[in-house]
Amino acid sequence: MALAGAAGTLMRFALSKQAAQMAGAGAFFPYGTYSANLLGSFLLGVVFIWGEGRTVLGVDLRLVVGTGMMGGFTTYSTFNLEALRLFSAGHGGRALLYMALTLLTCLAGGAAGIALGRMLR
Questions:
Q1: Which of 33, 30, 31 is nearest to 75 (CA)?
Q2: What residue segments make up the domains of the chain, in order of their start?
């Protein structure tokens, strides 16, 4: 479980670094965290449904990948901090957009992941 969490953390670091490079130094939107949360929502949906009844080394796949890897990959605390930083910097509109996009698209990503997980069964 700890190794899966470490892998998720490394994946998030790489994604955040890549997103920052692609957005450029002047970008003022948390693309890395947003991307990790959206992708993580989708992957968690897939793993939750597809992994039902599957085990890896005697442990439920959903616990290893869902709790371990996706727990390290996604994060609410960073989302929260970035939204508050946008508000405090006077970018209330961007903060609300970020919050709404994260909520709506991550819900949609999770639903799409669940649907894909069902198809893969």
A1: 33
A2: 2-20+32-120
* H helical segments located in the chain: 2-23, 31-50, 61, 70-73, 76-88, 92-120
**pLDDT tens digit string along 108-118?**
999 999 999 99
3 state SS of 27 = coil
Residue 43 and residue 70 in contact, taking contact as beta carbons nearer than 8 Å: yes
> Which of 112, 103, 99, 98 minimizes the C-alpha distance to 42?
112
In angstroms, how far is CA 80 from the centroid of its own chain?
13
Span 61-111, pLDDT tens digits? 888 888 899 999 998 888 998 999 999 999 999 999 999 999 999 999 999
- Given a contact cutoff of 8 angstroms between Cβ atoms, the answer to whether 23 and 31 are in contact is yes
| pTM as predicted | 0.82
Beta carbons within 8 Å of 68's beta carbon, 6+ residues apart? 1, 2, 3, 4, 5, 7, 8
